[in-house]
Task: inverse folding
């Protein structure tokens, strides 16, 4: 191996280390806590606005014992879907904060609610439906008698569907707030980024679950930071992934292309 080839290989190894899941995750965690300390007040205000729309859902959970199971599940999924535009608006606001803008929280929240209403609901319906299919598959075949090898395989398939949809949450709403993706391209991009950066996707997913669990157990964390903090993590992680691994610099929302799907998904 000549000196030129050795230098090239050394640069390749350095780039691989720099863009590894561990390195990317470390940068996400560092900037996450930095952003949290700099924007705590806005994150709390954003979440309070979101929580206002989440009150029917949490009230339903609180009074679950006094209503029938059928009515509970119908109302639960209905309220969850209706919460989608508010959730999308939260992602829009935290995305703007990450890109260094200074949005007017209240007015921008209701603007985002209107802009992302349709896409937010459609993506939420698709996500909930796929989750329901996966969980139903797992429950049905786990309770099937006799429980045999085929049942194990089918339960495992249901688990993989649930896990895939969970990992795709890293990208679905962050992609949507870029305003240039159709529902189809949003889903395709989410699948692509999930598999192309599977280690990173899994770690960010676990970090988000940990944050949501801690906030839920704290009680006060739900109205204060439940959605704003997790959306801040997802948007930040996605932005760092695009910049470090895919070389997209600058403000992501201003990319001059029909879609990221055309840039990255179709080239593989």
Result:
């Amino acid at each position: 191996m000549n000196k030129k080839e050795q230098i090239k290989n050394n640069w390749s190894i350095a780039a691989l280390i720099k863009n590894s899941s561990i390195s990317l995750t470390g940068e996400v965690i560092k900037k996450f806590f930095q952003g949290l300390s700099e924007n705590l007040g806005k994150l709390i205000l954003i979440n309070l606005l979101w929580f206002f729309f989440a009150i029917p859902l949490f009230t339903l959970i609180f009074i679950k014992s006094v209503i029938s199971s059928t009515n509970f599940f119908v109302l639960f999924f209905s309220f969850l879907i209706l919460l989608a535009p508010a959730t999308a608006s939260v992602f829009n606001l935290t995305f703007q904060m990450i890109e260094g803008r200074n949005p007017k929280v209240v007015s921008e929240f209701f603007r985002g609610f209107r802009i992302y209403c349709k896409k937010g609901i459609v993506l939420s319906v698709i996500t909930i439906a796929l989750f329901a299919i996966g969980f139903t598959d797992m429950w049905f075949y786990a309770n099937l008698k006799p429980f045999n090898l085929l049942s194990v395989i089918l339960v495992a398939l249901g688990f993989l569907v649930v896990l895939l949809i969970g990992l795709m949450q890293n990208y679905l709403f962050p992609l949507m707030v870029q305003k240039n993706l159709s529902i189809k391209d949003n889903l395709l991009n989410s699948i692509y980024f999930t598999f192309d950066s599977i280690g990173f996707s899994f770690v960010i997913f676990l970090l988000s679950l940990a944050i949501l669990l801690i906030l839920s157990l704290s009680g006060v964390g739900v109205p204060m930071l439940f959605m704003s903090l997790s959306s801040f993590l997802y948007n930040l992680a996605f932005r760092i992934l695009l910049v470090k691994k895919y070389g997209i610099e600058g403000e992501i929302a201003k990319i001059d292309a029909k879609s990221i799907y055309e840039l990255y998904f179709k080239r593989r």
Notes: The chain has one domain: 19-265. Residues 215 and 221 are 4 Å apart (CA to CA).
